[in-house]
Amino acid sequence: MRWLILVVRIPAVPSRHRVATWRELRRGGALQIGQGVWAMPDVPAFARGVARVVELAHRGRGEVLTLSAAGRDRPDSARLQDMFTAERAAEWSEFLAGCTEFDAEIDDLTAGELTIASLDEHEARLERLRRWYREIRARDVFGAPAAAEAHQRLIRCAGRLADHAERVYRTSQQN
């Protein structure tokens, strides 16, 4: 596996450029392997993010040195892949917590008032979960173990909301 190594240098002042670049690197799934040094698999899914990082760094009068690299031997390659996959596993864990939170909210709704406004709010929340899932999935090029569970939990959340929506619509038609 080939990796992109980004060596990022941006002046400390003003800090907004460094922060924007850091956020873009994190959002894009880059793995920080040192101070100002980031790695990501050299696959098309990351190309836009790299271009955006370079653009942000240049706006801040900084620079990005982009290198193509591979682990020196199999253990190094495996270690880099494991580190990258661990980052994705942490993202999936956070996503699963979001699904648990969504389920709890649906439980509260089921026990409480059935309103169209609340349904609209939770449909928007489900769409955010879907978008979050797609973003992590795009970065998870090695397939972290929790990805399959995350997919099943998202399907469950959608099903639970569909059931709730049916109850809301039945209630609204009766009134």
What can you see in these coordinates?
The mean pLDDT is 93. The protein is 67% helix and 13% strand. It folds into two domains: 3-70, Alpha-Beta Plaits; 85-174. The chain has 175 residues and is an alpha+beta fold. A four-stranded antiparallel beta sheet has the order 2-3-1-4. It has helices at 15-27, 47-59, 74-111, 116-139, 146-174; strands at 3-9, 31-34, 37-41, 63-69. The protein contains five helices and four strands; from the N terminus they run E-H-E-E-H-E-H-H-H. The radius of gyration is 21 Å and the shape is elongated. The longest helix is centred in the middle third of the chain and has 38 residues, at 74-111.
Key phrases:
alpha+beta, 4-stranded antiparallel β-sheet, 2 domains, 175 residues, Alpha-Beta Plaits
